[in-house]
Design brief:
mainly alpha; single chain
């Protein structure tokens, strides 16, 4: 009996030494001490705890198979040992055996409904199954059990973030920061959540604007601007809000937003372009040309800028400059959204083919009008009508007559454009090109 008592006491000393080493992060020493303790006469219940402790040390060294083996022995020797269930659930997660992890975490919580680590591990298991609602609920319970643990708030914030719940994520990260102001990851993740929230609001604003709900769009953009969106997103939100304000004819407010967007991002060519259009609508033509020219300096392939500057030059009777811009627009038409290309190509071709003043350009007009017809599968009468005018300008009256007849057939006699098409057909039959009115 004396020997058993001495052996037990020695085992307890080794066990305590192992715990002390583990608390310092020296898991090799901890495992060595636990090995020695298990060679003493600790008794089944205490030995079960030591096996569980050694399993936890193996977990820390990512030796999960050894850890699982120790937890199984621990539970045979000490049934209902919560730490063993919790430790094995962690090992299960590391092995990718998520259902087993859930089973072990559930068993731990059956034994102790206030086990922080069991709730935590079950939350991580649910995250692996992408069941964010249950994961967040378990993080809530883990926090209830340990409300001053900043890491739990950080992990819950990450779950919210991954699930697209940006405001909840931000609140959770800020709770982590209040508890532990030196937790650097919480700051970076909070800022990322702010940016994601701003981006989400930007997309909502774009959707509202596409549906012409400009007041709603402005509200979404404004909320996004209040979400610490980062410099680039800040500039984009300002630019898009400015555009929505312009649609409501709130031109001066629009101008201020464009100015600020450009201040934040001096290379933001879209903001220069949009501000140029805003200047044009306000009658500030010189400023409009300046901004559109800067747009093209920053992005020489941006076709919409060529189209609009060409239109301004045309109205100023700077016909050579207008023609040059329209030629560049045709060359760079791929920079325009696909659904807008036919209309722009058709407009350019019409100006180059029918302008009452020179210089006209039949070759480019034919190319642009043909592209517009191809993009619309030869179903739009206006595009075919323009192609006929381009052929007439080139002196190919046979092709002009064929295309004009095709355009009239597509339009039908009831169309309001039919009369004009018919008059142009007579011109082509008389070997004359069409000239638009000044």
């Amino acid at each position: 009996m004396t020997y058993c008592a001495i052996s037990f006491n020695h085992g307890v000393e080794l066990w305590n030494d192992g715990v002390a080493a583990a608390n310092k992060g020296d898991f090799d020493t901890a495992i060595s001490k636990y090995d020695a303790a298990l060679r003493t006469r600790l008794g089944a219940s205490c030995a079960g705890i030591v096996y569980s402790n050694r399993g936890i040390a193996y977990n820390s060294k990512r030796l999960v198979d050894r850890a699982v083996s120790d937890f199984e022995v621990a539970l045979r020797l000490h049934p209902g040992l919560i730490e063993a269930y919790v430790g094995r659930s962690f090992a299960d997660i590391s092995k990718g055996e998520i259902d087993k992890a859930l089973g072990d975490a559930n068993e731990a919580l059956r034994c102790d409904p206030n086990s922080r680590d069991a709730y935590h591990n079950r939350a991580v298991a649910f995250l692996n199954k992408r069941d964010f609602g249950k994961a967040i609920s378990d993080f809530d319970d883990a926090i209830r059990c340990d409300p001053d643990n900043a890491d739990l708030y950080l992990e819950r914030g990450n779950a919210f973030l991954t699930n697209g719940q940006y405001e909840a994520a931000i609140a959770s990260f800020e709770s982590a920061i209040r508890i532990f102001p030196m937790l650097a990851a919480a700051y970076s993740l909070r800022d990322f959540a702010w940016e994601k929230r701003a981006y989400e609001l930007l997309n909502k604003g774009l959707k509202a604007a596409s549906e012409r709900n400009y007041n709603d769009a402005i509200r979404f953009y404004t909320d996004g601007l209040e979400s610490y969106p980062g410099v680039r997103n800040h500039a984009v939100l300002l630019c898009d809000r400015a555009t929505a304000l312009g649609h409501l004819n709130r031109r001066e407010e629009s101008a201020r937003d464009y100015d600020e967007a450009i201040r934040l991002d001096p290379n933001f060519y879209q903001a220069y372009y949009n501000r140029g259009i805003n200047h044009r609508e306000c009658g500030r033509i010189y400023e409009a040309i300046q901004d559109i020219t800067e747009t093209l300096r920053l992005n020489p392939k941006y076709a919409p800028a060529y189209v609009d500057r060409g239109a301004i030059y045309f109205r100023q009777k700077k016909l050579s400059e207008a023609r040059a811009d329209w030629l560049n627009a045709v060359e760079n038409i791929d920079s325009i959204e696909a659904e807008h290309r036919p209309r722009l190509l058709n407009n350019i071709a019409w100006q180059l083919a029918t302008s009452p003043a020179t210089p006209r350009d039949a070759e480019t007009a034919i190319r642009a009008a043909t592209q517009a017809c191809e993009l619309t599968n030869w179903t739009r009468s206006d595009c075919v009508d323009t192609l006929a005018a381009a052929y007439a300008e080139a002196g190919d009256f046979s092709s002009a007559i064929d295309r004009q007849n095709q355009a009239m057939q597509l339009a039908g006699p009831s169309s309001e454009d039919y009369g004009g098409m018919k008059r142009r057909l007579r011109l082509y039959q008389d070997q004359k090109p069409y000239r638009a009115k000044r």
